[in-house]
Structures are given as structure tokens and as C-alpha cells.
Amino acid sequence: KIKSDSVSDEVKEGIIKGFEDDIKDKSDEVLVKETSDNINEIKNFVKTKEEEINKYDSLKNHKFKPIKFLKLIKYLNSLIEKFNVKDFSSQNKKNKVEKVKLNDELMNHIKTDSDKKLAIALKDINNNPLKNTNYDELSNKMAFVVLAAGDENGRLVKEIDKNGNLVPISVKVSYNGEEKQLSIKDIIPSLRNLEGEELNDKFKQINNYYDENSDQVIFSKDPIEIIKDNNIMTFLLNPYNVLEDGNYKGFDLSPEDVYITMNTNNNLESSFRSFVSEINEINANNFDELPEDIKARWNSDIPEEERADESLYKALAVHCIRNTRCNNYFKENNLIPFNIVSYNSKDESRGIDLMNHSLIINDDDNKEICNAFTLVENLEGYELDKVNGNGDLFTYEELNILNNNSDNHEMNKIKINDNEYVEKFSIGFLAECGFDLEKTDGTTLKPEDYALENEEFNDVSDNEIIERKYLVKNNGKYNMNVVRSDVFDDDVTKVKLDNNNNINDISLKDFGITDNELTTLTIYGSSILGKELYNEKEDMIHYTDDNEYHSRYNNVRESLNLQNGIKDIKNERSRCTESRTCLTKTYITGSFDVEKKLIKNIKVKDEETSISSPGELCDGAETLLNVIETLLNSFENSGAITKEDSEKFITNMNEVINGLNYRYMNSNYKSHESIRDLDMNKLNNINKLYNQMLKQHVEKHGEIVDSKGNKITKINNYKSEADTESKFNITQLFNDDDQDLSNINIVYNMDLSDKKLDDDKTYEIEYIKNKLKELDVSGNIYDKVSEVEEVFDRNNNGGEGFLNNSQTIYSVKEALNTLLKSNYPMDEDVNERLNRYKDTINGFKKSEVKSSNVLTMDHIVGKVGNVYEFIMTDPKSTMYVKKYFDALKDNMFEINGNEVEEELMMEKIRDINRIINEKIEKFKKLDESKGHFEEGAHLIELISGYNELISTKLILSKEKALDVNYIYIPNDIELYRRLMYMSTSKYNKVVEGVMRNNPENFRVDVNRPIQEHIRTNNKDAQSYTFNKNTNMFNEKINSRSEASRKIIEKATPSQLSDLNTGYRMDYKLMDHTLPSYRDADKIKEINE
Questions:
Q1: DSSP 27
Q2: Nearest to 234 by CA among 570, 534, 654
Q3: Contact (Cβ atoms closer than 8 angstroms) between residue 342 and residue 319
Q4: Taking the CB of residue 792, how many other CB atoms lie within 10 A of it?
């Protein structure tokens, strides 16, 4: 019956399953022999059938027979796998039967025919139920931590610590969302408490345990080609190149070859959805050819930051309407999730590269994915792909079969004492490192629970064969190739470390990675990314709910960061710009609805989406950031919030804060209102507040997971994705109000209608380098410059030229290197920084790089209308006030001697004086300071800028008396008291909170207000300080600065944010106090 073509697949499967049932009793030697003979007979039949099918000119014309043939092989291989399971508790010894493998000729025949059903049947042959799971990923991640700590010969790398001792190297890891340096001994449990040669020997044994590059015969073919061959995107997109003769040739995509747009609900997506669902029929092939009345139905109110992709979305909308299947999807469900997947191909007949954009629709209701169509982008616009114009449809089940991007089909099962184990090379690595595994239910598996000890089970796996093949000797405690099969269950979630932390990934930037390690990382990174983009549990990555969006989007981002780091290293080593073979970066883009999610948490009217008036959203809020801080603080102090409400709140805030981080690092958003007054200091504070809030929720209610088991995690560091024109880069060096390098005084055009300066600052580079010599260059300045340099390195790598401002950044960094070498030749920290410095980029010396160096304030001044009014009246301008007054001072030098221009400038100075004094009087009449902190900070900055103007004017007029004077804040007692109250009220608020949370550390009544009220005409109060009351603590405190340190040690992240804000205002006020009147203790406190 198995040999008959007339017998159904179901009957054949039933017959073979009957054989499987028969061999369960392996003690019956006669039955084992009979089953072996039956298997060999079927294999001979399969061989004959394979030769017959291979002779077909086209498999498509005989599709029924090839598919039945492939299914037969699947059933037979399943039987063989079960027959081969060794039971080490049984005395029965049977010979291993090899699985059926198709010959290369038939494999190529099937691939050439490009038939979906045949491809699925072929993949299904080796579709092992043992999918790659968390265990594999955990094992790989920890292996790369070990790789990072070893040299090319597998020895443990040592470094000199601050005390001059030689210690095991520290590895930079992403540690619960934060980058930290951890000693390799802290990471690997089995290395703890070891010293000297014992430590070295154990490390080398672990390193060799996982060294998959010790011999190239490990892989029967290039593993990257295996990953490409098994990448789901290849089947879904059907990519091809056009050959010189005009014929088409398909190719396999690596996971990192695609660019994915993961849509949520941004303006562009909403315009696309409404247009497609409302328009029934069109005849045009592109948007511009449509009748005016139809074009008018496209919502043209698209924010500037989204307009770059508008033409693509319009083209997709037009072709979706013309495509019946695509149009029906959106007519039936306007909210159906979709992706835009882009990739490159070649047209060799025309000698050009092409960019292709496929519209992928995810139908979760019917469990199917549709590649609706593909558009090819060219100089004229977009045209429908001739081959993939109508795409294809796959069920989720079919894609799961095709998504065989693991090597677990090579795993063998064995039985020992009625327990099932899996045998695979180096699978026991985690056990040998001494790691405990944690399951989702909190159960802990120790190494002895999931591994086999060598002493008792050394002969269980084919150690001799594996050792000879891979040149690795297993002298460890556990069998290197065997673990219990249940560790491959989905509920094994993480490796347990001390302090209940979980290592997520390693950083590449500080490692001198060898070629072998780079190859291994490439294989690992490609495999992980392939699983993140599509896996059997979650299907292709797409938006379904808020939790899943955040968790999956972040997972893919992290995988892409690893991929792009690998590409940077490869581009640098290959000097790719000289040969034009640079690897391109890979991206995933998504949208963050900051405004809508923030509104949801405030619980205002459902239709409300505006956040332009923070004071109306939150009592006392002056900025959007105040609103966020208040929300996070409220959550931190709320005790009765339910688990459901807590999850909703955190999920919404996750999107808000991820969105702000994304916008701050993305040049498309550098002019966006939501980040206008945002700097890194404020952003870091908000990130810490959110992470603390998430930690509180996890401790009280457990982790937040989506329907697919993905976790909401801490805010990721977006610096690795910053682009060179982002607000992060613009403000990090020369535009921030409190950065050390602001003293260099680069002058910008602050009135775009009257530009007096060249926006290109190339001519100022030498000036910048000379000014640096006047600064006391510290590691802090160096690190800030290095952060920006990393952004330029990453974006310049693989490019044909150098991006705007590359010359400036590289010149500044070179100048800092020279200064540090000269000023601190023996400083250990300095030398460590200098040793990490890479002085070339794309094969060029950084000191010789040339680029444009346009550095402007257009992202701010171009958006506010009247710049003068913005600077003088809007607290959001605080971080730009200094630059505005720098421009005025520069102009004063330019017009010096021109009486008409000088008088106009004096009129402006008088007007500034008037505005500031009016603001001071208004400020002094406030009933209370609540809700006016930003206004106070803005006022201090304005007075500073004004006083510098007066000083400059006096110098230019040779001390000739002016009709306006300096404004000294301490001379106005009421003003000074109010501003001092604002700064110290932040501090006092923190002290009160710390006292309530830690009453055991204080000898006073912790519920008593810390402020001493005085009689004034308002609700403000003079600050209460530790100046005379350091005996509040149980232990002896000798100074205010020492008391402050004690408070800081006990403060929560939100309290630290308040302290930081207060200290920043203290610093500004101190700058306005004459040196002889400055409080020495206060200065020491602020500096510390």
C-alpha cells in the first residue's frame, strides 16, 4: 500500500505510525529486526521513486506525485528518528538507520520550479518539533560573553585594576536594559572562588567547550547560506535579480537584508487606511494621475517628520485599490495589521540596483499572511513588479513549516532511566558554566537537574567521534552533548544570575574581535534575527496589541543593533569604500503615539489629543516633561492601584517614553514640539523614573507579558541608533545650556530672515581646537565627545563620503586626545580611554577627513515665528537663550563703530532690560512658586545673557556709562529668596520623602515638615538646610555635603531627579553671586 499511488497520504501515514507503535517495546529483538527490514525496503522504494521524479521536465505538471512523494519521506524519517532513539537502560543494541536525504539534483529541480506547495512539502521533511527555543538563545548569549573574555587561543584575558592588580577582564553587557561592566567571574558561576592556574584552566575548558570554529569541518556548507535558505522572507517575498540577458534568477535573502516598517497608528498609516477603504475603483497607475476629487480625499495633513515616506504610501494605496484581494482586506477590516518590507535587488541588464517594497498583510483572524504585491522603486517613481505583482498567500501553518531556521533537525533523542534527553554538540555548555535556569512558574533547574554528570554518563553520547571531529576534549563535570529534552520547552525563560538579574547581550564596541569570533557572531546574529522577524509562536512581526508591539519591536531592534555592529567591523576591516563592497545597515521603523498614550494615562476626554497646554493636563505642569514626571511620581507613590490598571498605565508610558527617546535620536523629529526643551539630562531622568516604576510593578504583580509571552522591558538605550543630524547630536556638544563645551561659544544665526553668518563652520574648526586648550579637559568632556563620535562612526561606516560635521567631530576628538596625552600622561583612566581610540574610518585617518560642517539652530528658530519673542517669553527656550545672546554679542563686535547700528543695538538692550524687569515684578507677585519652576530657570538664564551683553557693550564703549545697568539677582531680596526657595524646595521635598521612607536613620520626628515658615505676602518659604541641623541623623554628620550624600544614597530615582533639578538651579544662582559672598559649603555640596 505504501508503494501505491492510489493510496491516500493519510492511509500511508497511518501505516507508518503503526510501525512507530510497534517499536515502543524495544526489548522484542524480533520486532526490532522486522521494523528495520521494513524501513530499508521503503527506503529502496523511495530511491527508485526519486530517480523517476527527477526525470520530469517540469515538476509543476506532475505536482500531485512529487508532493505525495515528499510527504512519504516525511513520514518515513519520523519513523526512523523514533527507531534510532537509544535507550541506555535497555540491553538491546540496534544499528542506527540513516534518514532519507534527497539528492542535490532533485533539490535544485524543486527550487528552480519555484512552486509554493512543493517548497512547503520539501521543508516539511525535516520539520523537527524541537524548535530553537530560549535555551538555545541563552546558551549562545552566554557563549559570546565567554568569547569576549578570551583571547584567540582560548585563554582568559587579564586587565590591571585600579589597585594595580592583574584581574580577570570585565565584560560590557546590557544588563536589564542598562550597560554595565561585569567581571567574567561574576558572570560565570563555575569560575567563582577560583584563582591562578585553576581559574585559567577552567576558563579555557569552558571556552573550548563552545568553540565552534576550532575546525571548519563542523559545517557541511556555509552556515550563512543555510540561514538564507531557511529564511522565511525568501519564500514570502520571492526576490529575484534580472540577469544581463533579461532572464530572472531568484536569490535567498538573509534576515538582515530586509527593512521592515512596523505600523501602529501614525498619520501616514491612517491616511493610507482611510484612502484604501473609501475609494472603490481607480484606473491610474500612480497617485498624480488620479482625478483631483479623488486626490483630495487623501489626508494631506501629514507631519513633516513623516513626509519622507508619503510618496511610497500613496503608491501602495493606489495599487492596493487596484488589487482586488488587497482592497477586500481593508474593506472588511480597516484596522488589519500590515508591514512594508523593503529589500534590494539588481537589474544587470541595465546595470542598476533596485529597491523593492512589498505590502505584507497579516490576517490574524484567518491565520494567513498575504504578500499583496511588490512595487519597484526607480527614479521616476514606483511601478508594479512584473513577477510579484500579485504576490502570494500563506497560512501561518505553511510559514511555520518554511521557517525552519534552526539546526535542531540534527538533534538526536536518547533515553536514560525513562527520562528523555537530547544529544547535540556542545548543548551542555550552560550546565558546565554552572548556570541555574528559571522557568516561567518560578521553578529553578540546577545543572544536575537538566544535565548528565560525566563521571556517570560519559559514554552516553558519541564523545569520541565528536572529540575527534571538533578537536575538543571534554574534561568538565557535565556531558558536553546531552541535556534533558524539557529544557527546550517554551517556559525556560532565563539564566539565573546573582541579584536576580538577566544578561541580555554583549557590547561589541570595546572588543578586539578576532575573525573567528566575528564569523561566529555573524552566524549567531543572523539566526537570532531570523527568529525575531518570524517564529512559530508569533508569526511575522506585526502590531496586534500594545504589549506585543513594545516587546517584539524592542527585541528586533536589539538584534539589528548586533547585526549593524558586526557590519561596521566588517566594513572597517575590508576598507570597503575602496572596493565599493560596503555592507549596508538594516533598520526596523515603527511609530510611537506619544501624545495619545499620554492623554490616556491622564484620563481626560477620549477625543482629546492635544498636549500643547501642559498646565491644563496636570496641575502645576509647565512642560510636557513636567506632566510625565508627575505621572511617574504619582504611580510611584500609589499603593492601591490594581494589577490591570497598573499594566495599562505602564504599557502606555512605555510607548510615551520610548517615543521620546526615539524622537530625540532621529533627525526626522529634531524640530518636533514634544522634544523642543528636551536634553539628555532630562531624558535620562525620565528613563530612570519609568524603569523604577516597572520594577515596582514586577515586584508587586509580576512581569507584564503579551498574548505571545513576550515581556515589557526597561527602556532601551537608543543612542546606538542616533543619526548624525538628530537632536541628540546637535545638543550634545555645542547647544546644551550646561555642557562644558558650550564655553567654546560657537555662534549661530538666530534670525533666519536675517542671516549674518555662514552656517558652515569649517573655518571655525581651528578656533574650536585652540579654545579647547583653554579648558580643563576632563574625562567627562572626552566621553561626551566620544558618544557623538560613535554616532558618526556608525553612520559613516560603509559610506562613499563623510557626513556633515564629520570633520568637526573628528578634529575635536583628535585635539582632545592630544590634550589628554599632554596633560595626563600617567593617568590610568585617561590611558584606558586613549587605548580604545580608533584613529581611522573607512580606511582614512580621521585627522585627514574632510566634510561639510553646517551646524545651525534652524530646527528651533525656524519653527517659532518671532525668535526674539520666543527667547524672551517662552520657558521652552531656556536651553537656547545663551546661544541667542552669544549671537547678539558677536553682532556687537561686527557693528562696532557704526553709530546707527550701535544705537539700534542699544534700543534692543533697553527693550531686553524692560522685558526682564517686567518679568521680575510679575514673578515676585506670584502667590506661590508651584507651576513656575521652569519660568524661574528661564529668568535666571535671561539675566545671565543680559549681563553679558552689558559687559560686552561696556568693553566696546571703553567703560562709557550706559543708561541701563547690570541686573544683580542677590540685590533684589524678594527675587533672590523666591529663586532660592525654588531650588531648595526640590531638595526639601526629597529630604522629607527620604525621612518618611527611612525613619530608622533619623532621630527626629520624620512626619514634621522640614521647612521653617516665615511671614511673607505669599505662600513661599525660606529654605531649611542642614547648615545648623546635621544632628537630625542617628549617626554623626560633620557637614552639609556629607548629609546630602546620605540623602542621595537613600533617594529613589524620582527623588534623584528632583535633587538634580534643584542643584542645577543652585549652580545657576551661585553664578550670580559675587565670589566674596558665595557659600563655601554650598559650593562644595554642589560640586560633590
A1: T
A2: 534
A3: no
A4: 27
Burial of 530 (0-12, 13-18, 19+ CB in 10 A): buried
C-alpha cell at 40: 530499508
What is the distance between the alpha carbons of residues 978 and 1023, in angstroms, rounded to a whole number? Answer: 10
> Around Cβ 199, how many Cβ atoms within 10 Å?
17
Q: Please, what's the b/e burial string for 206-233 (b: 16 or more CB within 10 A of its CB; e: otherwise)?
A: bbbbbbbbeeeeeeeeebbebbbebbbb
Count of residues for the chain? 1088
Give all strands (DSSP E) within 161-210, no chain letters: 166-168, 170-175, 178-183
| Residue 500 grid coordinates | 536576580
Q: Which residues pair with 352 in a beta bridge?
A: 347
Strands 844-845 and 352-363: unpaired
DSSP state of 359: E
Q: Which residues contact 411 (CB under 8 A, 6 or more apart)?
A: 128, 130, 422, 423, 424
Three cell numbers, residue 216: 571548519
Residue environment code for 1009-1023, b if the CB has 16+ CB neighbours within 10 A, otherwise e: ebbeeeeeeeebbeb
Amino acid found at 607: E
d(CA 699, CA 863): 44
User: Rounded distance, CA 874 to CA 278, Å?
Assistant: 43
Backbone φ, ψ for residue 596 (5° rounding): -65, -40
C-alpha cell at 142: 552566554
Report d(CA 751, CA 759) in Å as an integer.
12
CA–CA gap between residue 993 and residue 441 (Å, rounded):
36
Cβ-contact 1061, 985 below 8 angstroms: no
Give the count of beta carbons closer than 10 Å to the beta carbon of residue 757.
17
Q: Which three cell numbers stand for residue 693?
A: 516604576
* Contact call for residues 370 and 393 (beta carbons, < 8 A): yes
CB 479 within 8 A of CB 427: no
Type of residue found at 343: Y
SS (H, E, C) 428-493: CHHHHHCCEEEECCCCEECHHHHEEEHHHHCCCCCHHHHHHHHCCCCCCCEEEEEEEHHHHCCCEE
List the alpha helices (DSSP H) in 840-928: 858-861, 867-873, 878-895, 899-924
* Residue indicated by cell numbers 574650536: 768
The whole-number pLDDT of residue 466 equals 43
**Tens-digit pLDDT profile for residues 448-497:** 888 888 776 666 655 444 444 444 455 667 776 788 877 776 565 556 65
Q: Closest Cα partner for 72 from 36, 43, 35, 37?
A: 43
Q: Which residues contact 961 (CB under 8 A, 6 or more apart)?
A: none
Write the pLDDT tens digit of every residue in 192-246.
667 777 777 777 666 654 444 433 333 445 656 666 666 778 888 889 999 999 8
pLDDT, averaged per 10 consecutive residues of the chain (1088 residues), comes to: 68 71 63 76 82 76 74 79 64 65 76 71 65 63 65 61 62 53 66 72 63 40 62 84 89 85 77 90 86 89 83 94 92 89 91 91 89 89 88 83 58 73 73 76 80 70 47 62 74 54 48 63 72 70 69 74 77 67 74 67 49 62 72 68 82 84 88 82 83 84 73 76 86 56 65 76 81 68 83 82 90 88 81 80 87 82 82 88 89 90 92 94 83 87 91 84 86 86 79 81 70 39 39 74 81 76 78 64 63
Give the gyration radius of the chain's Cα atoms. Answer: 34
- Rounded-to-integer distance, Cα 567 and Cα 514, Å: 14
pTM score, whole prediction: 0.72
Identify which of 326, 404, 355 has the alpha carbon closest to the alpha carbon of residue 74.
404
Residue in 115, 82, 117, 78 with CA at minimum distance from that of residue 100: 78
